[in-house]
Amino acid sequence: MNAPKTASAMVAINTYWFSLSEGNQVYVTSDSLTILNFCCYANGAGDIGGSGTLAVQDCISANPQFRNAGSGDYHLKATSPCIDNGENALVPGGVTTDLDGNTRIVNADVDLGPYEEQE
């Protein structure tokens, strides 16, 4: 008797990844599906790995421009491509503030990541 196949899925929405070290930022295991929707990630050699299925929609492949990632400050610089590049309809219902407690959507569109630029 054959063992049943298992599969898993991951969905990332209004998110950013950026690694300070080498290696995969996104790794998709075999028999799995990863969906990146309104995300920011680097797309250099080795940043995406694995043999599973990766679906990408409305993502940015660029440095998110954190203020000081080396010191743990993942707020976005004013020049970040992640500002106003999210999808408001994908923000969970009832979420009105960012991780700092500030207004979640400022200007036309939500920022990618947990912090909203307030200017």
Largest β sheet strand count, sense and barrel closure = 3 strands, parallel
Described by the principal axes of the CA atoms, the overall outline is: globular
Mean residue pLDDT:
83
Strand order of the largest sheet: 1-3-5
Global Rg: 16 Å
State the secondary-structure class.
mainly beta
Low-confidence stretches: 1-7
Instruction: State the helicity in percent bands.
Output: under 10%
- N-to-C span: 61 Å
Description:
With 119 residues, the chain is mainly β. It has no helices and seven strands. The chain has strands at 8-16, 26-28, 32-40, 48-50, 53-57, 66-68, 73-76. A hairpin with a 4-residue loop joins strand 6 and strand 7. The model is unreliable at 1-7 (pLDDT under 50).
Brief write-up:
With 119 residues, this protein is an all-beta fold. 0% of the residues lie in helices and 30% in strands.
Spell out the key features of this protein.
single chain; 119 residues; mainly beta; 3-stranded parallel beta sheet; two-stranded parallel ribbon; 7 strands; globular; disordered N terminus
